[in-house]
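Each field is listed here:
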Amino acid sequence: MLRQFDVPTDMVVARDVSVLVRLLGGEQLSGPQARQLQGSIFLAFPGLERDDAHLLADDRIVAYLASAHDAVPHLFYFLAPLPAAGALLGFLAGASGTPGVTADGSAVVDEQALEKLAWHLTKAAEYAESVGDDWHRMADSFISQLPDEHASLLNETLTQHLVD
């Protein structure tokens, strides 16, 4: 089941991620509660949607998403991995050293973005383990959306960090 979280415009402008921190950060959820929410949340910005521009062309949304990932490093654990939900694209838009989304809405994946993605997916994988969940399935659902050369690198990085 997908769960839509509508982010009010004033929270986006203020980069106020306190609700996400309160709900998903730290030790608030038991293992069963966390596993029930795994991969089910997508963030929506109804007050900022425009017909003439990609949602991630709005720098305020990109900054909000970057703040959300910074405040809840394991956020990927909870986000819906469906490409249409935009979790990976939204992350990459804020993680890249260059503008993170092209005019056609595809992601720019540079070295900086890959390093940040590896770190955040590692945090999500560690969180998955801490609540008794399978980190491979969760991480693969995002990594599989990337080109093969990036996916291989991320798989190696996660395995190295989590198996050692």
